[in-house]
Amino acid sequence: MLATADAARAQRAPAAGNITAAATTYRVVNLGADPLSALPKINARGQVSFSLNPGAGSRGFFYNGKAVQDIGTLGGAETLAVDLNEAGQVTGGSILARGSEHAFVWTAGGGMRDIGVLPESSNARAAAINRHGVVTGTSEAVPDFPPRAFRWSAAGGMENLGALAPGSGSFSSGTALNDAGLITGSSTTADLNGHAFAWTRAGGLLDIDTLAGLDSIGVAVGAGGHVAGNVIRDDSFLYHAFLWTPGGGMKDLGTSGGTESFVTAMSPGLQIAGIINLADGTQRAMSWIRSEGMRSLGTLGGATSFALGINGRGQIVGLAENRTGEARAFAWTAQGGMVDLNTLLRNAPPGLVLDNAIAINDNGAIVATSNAGLVLLKPRTSNKSELAGGPAVGPLVVPGVARAGVPLQATVAFVDEDRAGTRSVSWSWGDGSGAQAGRVAGANGGGSASSSHSFAAPGIYRVAATVTDGSGRGTSVSRTVVVAAPSSGTVAGTGAIMSPPGALKRSPSHAGPVSFILIAPSTAGARAAGMPARLQFDLPGWNFRSDSIRLLGRQGAQHVFEGSGTIQGRGGYRFRLATDAGAAGGAGRFGLKIWHTDPASKAEVVDYDNGRAPAAARGSRLSTGSVVLD
């Protein structure tokens, strides 16, 4: 049985939105096609930092306004680019040759600088950098050195910010800071609850959870030293958004009629963007300002929306479902309401669909995800020099699930606004067969290409097409294909689900599309024949991998698996997965719980669970992709 949520999606035109004659229109710049491994950031100059996972580990990238470059590593295989400031400095974490992770600061002129770890620690990752190049993050060497928030500057090096309560079982982590140097995050208290803190040079580490919450964390810091974040106030274990002010303490911002609320971003002027959880398990994008309080931003006609980014002009971007339940990137203003960004594209590559807008700068440039990967939406101007960026390429149209020995058909379409002419399209199938030239058809700066290929063995392959114009500038798009066995006995799928807020325990405000890849034997015969088993589940900055998958049982179209795996390469995690196809021709569901055992208390600690809400007990439905259940 085949459950598919994106068949023919690339060919489907978006519905018209609330467009006015004065509405901004955008041109598309492809940034990268591999899965996101860290959320992108954009500064006022239109520069973008982001991380992608091509399959062998995360790589960090920087877009300078004209081209994308890999920022390298500290000698190892992986880099996470986590934040970007107005000077074009990038920070995050990178792996050394010996395997540990160090925080870094990167510049285009100076390359990657290792800013080290705290004394007695072995790992560090930066979380944020301000315009002065001051960095905050977390350093640890568990179990020997507990996690500690740090502050780093070029003049003072790395400083330990301490914790609200001492001891080997305590922790602190730095998450955000402003240009004045106020740092926020979370730290354990004497009763082992996690409380949001504010750190300043003059005042040190201050517990700002005046609501006496069971758990709280600071997410964003305003220009005036205000902190926004999320708090659990009682044993209902439901989150509420909060705003802390130095004079007024922590204020619960409520839920606007929902069950929970979450801060995801805040402008320097204290406008908050976030998410409201409703009792029926759906979500609404929200905005909060002091004069009006919290308001729902609605949807594009569907059940769910998330607000993820905001700029200083009060423009909010995110994801919303349309009337048919498909995810679409939106932009919202108080004057114009919510608009589907797909309706504001001009001369976009055929088949392109924007599904999530993540970040926006004050000039209105937007970083979004799409069925062709990560893209930058540049407001259109009359400046022809902006066109010199290579072809804009649409999605790779290819089945997400195929069968070994059966020819797979693939197509891709493109446009090139400077009319430099397309020189070639080459294909790579990810199975060692080498690059292959494709048939190209087109004229006047646009066209398409197609090719076909048969895979000899079941497995997971990354198919890519590279479009090169007459000036030698190339743009690549790619897609993962899961190849199942020719006969029955395989569960295979690839695509994405809508992960609800609260599912990821380390970052409860995280919400949005999460990609998955699954291939597993479902019969004893398939296992005996050596059928491969793999589960990949990728959130930005948090990647789960398992090659140890066991079928627990099946009931109708549903299969339940369990096994063990790693998060960011570290073992000791268990999982249970339930996936089913649902009604024939409809979208399937994907329910995943991941947990580990605390080494001290021996208690089960849940790391991820998208079935935590009663309305989501069967997990999340597929938003894209398909699952084949044999």
TrEMBL record:
Domain spans labelled PKD: 411-490
Spans traversing the lipid bilayer: none
Pfam families cross-referenced by the UniProt entry: PKD_4 (PF18911)
InterPro entries: HAF_rpt, Ig-like_fold, PKD_dom, PKD_dom_sf
NCBIfam families: HAF_rpt
Protein name, entry field: PKD domain-containing protein
Annotated organism of origin: Telluria aromaticivorans
